[in-house]
Design a protein that fits this description.
Order of helices and strands: EEHEHHHHHE
Number of strands: 4
Shape: rod-shaped
Bound molecules: zinc ion
Number of domains: 2
Helix content: 40-55%
Largest sheet: 2 strands, antiparallel
Strand content: 5-15%
Structural class: mainly alpha
Strand order of the largest sheet: 1-2
């Protein structure tokens, strides 16, 4: 994109330091970086403003298999960094309900897309 000389209005290259036509010195093209004109600090924004770079890396397939086969004692919850829920599932594993819950969670993980999975469990995927 070309900018214009503020003095004579001639088109000048974006990186030019002076106008080819009238020779007047040019400021570094303000239009090239509009987001810096408002003086806002540059922030790396990922996933709607959440910095995910510190989230642990998990393997989605492992989480699914743990939920389906060992979900009754909440192993997948420990794996996914939610030990409180894992302990709850151990406490109630004698009911058999936790096996059903774990199985359903495994299925839901399998059908959810990776973005939702990462946000729900606050992890990055391998
Ligand atoms: Zn000029």
């Amino acid at each position: 994109m070309e900018t214009m000389c503020p003095k004579c209005g001639a088109p000048v290259a974006p990186n030019a330091t002076k106008c080819e036509y009238c020779g007047s010195p040019l400021q570094q093209a303000p239009a090239a970086q509009p987001q810096n004109m408002q003086g806002q600090p540059q922030v790396i924004v990922v996933n709607n403003g959440i910095d995910t770079s510190t989230w642990p890396i998990k393997n989605k397939l492992i989480a699914i298999l743990l939920a389906i086969f060992l979900g009754g004692i909440g192993i997948h919850e420990f794996y996914l960094g939610r030990p409180g829920k894992g302990i709850l599932m151990i406490l109630f594993c004698w009911t058999g309900i936790t096996s059903v819950i774990g199985f359903i969670q495994g299925i839901l993980m399998a059908v959810s897309n990776d973005e939702n999975f990462k946000l729900k469990y606050r992890c990055r995927l391998q």
